[in-house]
Amino acid sequence: MPRTTNAASRAVKRAKVFAMTKGFRGKRKNCYSIAVRAAERAMQNAYVGRKEKKRNIRQAFISRISAAARENGTSYSRLMHDMTTSDIQLNRKVLSELAIHEPKSFSALTKFSQERAQEVRKGLALI
After folding, report:
1. pTM of the model
2. Could you state, in chain order, the average pLDDT of each consecutive group of 10 residues for the chain (127 residues)?
3. What angle do CA 67, 78, 102 make, to 5 degrees?
4. Which residues contact 17 (CB under 8 A, 6 or more apart)?
5. How big is the chain by its Cα radius of gyration, in Å?
C-alpha cells in the first residue's frame, strides 16, 4: 500500500489561519509561521475585549442611573441600597433604560423605594 501525504488537511489548516489573518499588514497575513502567532494573539485580544465590553456597558448603565438619581436628590449607592432593602428587583440595564426614556417612572420608582426602605428600617413593613 502506498504512503499517503497529509497535504489536504495541511492545506485546510493553513487556509483557516490565513482566513483569520486576512486584512493584517505585512507578513502577518501571508507567512504561515508569523500568521499563526498573529492569529493566536488576535484571538486572545478578542477574548479579553469581550470581557472588557461587558465591563464598559455595566459602567455606562451605572453612570446613567447615577445621573438620574442625582436629579432625584439621591446618590447611586443610596438608590441601589433602598431598592434592595425594599425588595425591588430591577437590573441596571432596565433602570438605565427607565432613566433615559421614562424619567417620570424612574422618579416615581426612586420615591417609592425611598419610602419603602424607610418603612423597612423602622420595622413597619412586611417583606
Report:
1. 0.78
2. 79 95 96 97 98 98 97 96 93 96 96 92 71
3. 40
4. 32, 35, 36, 39
5. 27
